């Protein structure tokens, strides 16, 4: 089978391409190699590659003989979206429209999984969001992702496109840029540098090891239904400050490295997803939080040459 992955040079994309190739799939990687992407990933996880900014165009010929599409293309950093919301609107909404139009004009039968985020729901103090919960995005990033979701569902209903949506909790694992919490904490701890923590660090996130996410995407590609949404969660809700302390303990670093800083604007307090829908299809996480963190810490310790040139992101 042939899989087309948009945004395949990024963190989740690189892991997904490696995952699908090991299962025997032929993979096409489409990416603009923009801000936040690591060109070196292309030489580590190799596949057919096309450098294209799909917010400007999507060549229909890339869809020839493709069995399904995994859409991961998006600007994805909350802090950068707060600084430059127009970039996130133009890129994320633009690329979604171009991809959907290409599918509409080429074939409504090609299967697509659009990968979204739990952030489209906003935060929740008690309970968990279901796939039917109201969207209340808090940041320009999550608003742009909610817009992508809305267009995907509209094209599925109006034009009959064979699209499903996944909304996942926070991913972590190999190849994640240092701007994100877990790799930033690991790298700063390895360098004995202060680790910034927004506010008091009690914001709660649910953590999902990236390879478990790749498996969930494959499940939805094969078993999901047209126009349906599937929440994907790790079941590992924990305050950010505790994640940081776990990493420091694994690296034998002192908690004095923690430095509390001014909280992020509009910072969501807690994310929580009910993922019973996809679990009833047979998917569940295989990597628990402790093992996943140790795997991730070990990867960053062994791959200094991968991140040493990316310190500008922290």
Task: Say how many strands there are.
Answer: 12
| Strands ordered across the widest β-sheet | 3-2-1-4-5-6-10
Computed structural class: alpha/beta
CATH architecture grouping of the largest domain: 3-Layer(aba) Sandwich
- Reported by name, the CATH topology of the largest domain is Rossmann fold
Mean pLDDT: 94
In helices, the fraction of residues equals 25-40%
Question: What's the main sheet like?
Answer: 7 strands, parallel
Low-pLDDT segments, ≥5 res: none
- CATH C-level class of the largest domain: Alpha Beta
CATH superfamily of the largest domain: NAD(P)-binding Rossmann-like Domain
The SSE string, one letter per element, is EHEHEEHHEHEEHEEHEEHEHHH
The tally of helices reads: 11
Number of domains as seen in the coordinates: 2
Can you characterise this structure?
The protein has helices at residues 11-22, 40-44, 78-83, 85-106, 140-159, 181-190, 210-223, 240-250, 276-279, 289-302, 304-307; strands at 2-6, 26-31, 48-51, 68-71, 111-117, 163-168, 170-172, 195-198, 204-209, 229-232, 237-239, 258-261. The strands form three sheets. Strands 3-2-1-4-5-6-10 form a seven-stranded parallel beta sheet, with helices on both faces. Strands 7-9-11 form a three-stranded mixed beta sheet. The protein has a two-stranded parallel ribbon with strand order 8-12. The N and C termini lie far apart (39 Å). It is an alpha/beta fold and 314 residues long. It is globular, with a radius of gyration of 19 Å. β5 (111-117), α5 and β6 (163-168) form a beta-alpha-beta unit. The protein contains eleven helices and twelve strands. It folds into two domains: 2-171 and 206-232, Rossmann fold (3-Layer(aba) Sandwich); 177-205 and 237-269 and 288-313, UDP-galactose 4-epimerase, domain 1 (Alpha-Beta Complex). The mean pLDDT is 94.
């Amino acid at each position: 089978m042939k899989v087309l992955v948009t945004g395949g040079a990024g963190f989740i994309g690189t892991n997904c391409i490696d995952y699908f190739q090991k299962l025997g799939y032929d993979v096409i990687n489409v990416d603009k190699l923009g801000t936040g992407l690591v060109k070196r990933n292309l030489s580590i996880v190799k596949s057919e590659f096309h450098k294209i900014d799909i917010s400007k165009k999507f060549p229909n010929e890339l869809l020839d003989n493709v069995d399904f599409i995994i859409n991961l293309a998006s600007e994805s950093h909350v802090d950068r979206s707060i600084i430059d919301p127009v970039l996130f609107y133009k890129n994320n909404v633009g690329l979604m429209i171009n991809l959907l139009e290409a599918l509409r004009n080429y074939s409504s039968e090609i299967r697509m999984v659009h990968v979204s985020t739990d952030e489209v729901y906003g935060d929740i103090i008690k309970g968990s969001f279901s796939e039917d919960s109201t969207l209340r995005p808090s940041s320009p990033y999550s608003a742009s992702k909610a817009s992508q979701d809305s267009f995907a569902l509209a094209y599925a209903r109006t034009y009959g496109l064979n699209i499903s949506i996944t909304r996942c909790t926070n991913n972590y694992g190999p190849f994640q840029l240092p701007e994100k919490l877990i790799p930033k904490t690991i790298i700063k701890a390895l360098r004995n540098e202060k680790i910034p923590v927004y506010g008091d660090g009690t914001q709660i996130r649910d953590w999902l090891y990236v390879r478990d996410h790749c498996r969930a995407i494959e499940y939805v590609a094969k078993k999901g239904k047209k126009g349906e949404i599937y929440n994907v969660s790790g079941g590992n809700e924990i305050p950010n400050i505790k994640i940081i302390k776990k990493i420091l303990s694994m690296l034998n670093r002192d908690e004095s490295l923690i430095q509390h800083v001014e909280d992020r604007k509009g910072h969501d307090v807690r994310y929580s997803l009910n993922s019973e829908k996809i679990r009833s299809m047979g998917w569940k996480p295989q990597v628990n939080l402790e093992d996943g963190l140790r795997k991730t810490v070990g990867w960053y310790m062994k791959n200094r040459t991968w991140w040493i040139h990316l310190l500008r992101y922290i």
